[in-house]
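Deliverable D4.2, example record:
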Amino acid sequence: MMVYVIATDDECWENETNDYLMFADKWTVEVSEGLLYFKKITGKLADGTPVLDLATCKRFEVVWDKGIPNLDWLHSATFLEAIEKFAK
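Output generated by the structure prediction step:
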C-alpha cells in the first residue's frame, strides 16, 4: 500500500510516498535480512492515503535470524500467536 512518509522533526527531510506491507490498516512492515520493522500509521491525508510520521510513530522491531519470513500468516494471527511464532 502506498504511504505518505514525513518526518516532522527533520527540516531537511523530503516527504515521500513509499509502498509498504500493511497490517490491520494501522501498521507498516519493512522486511530486511534479520529484522522486521513495524511502524504505526500516524494519520491520513484528505484522499485517504495513510501518513507515517517518522518523528512520532510508535514502532518496534523483531530480530529474525531465519531468513526473510513469509508474513501472510500474520494478517490473521492473534497477538499471542505472533509472539509465540517470533519467539521460536
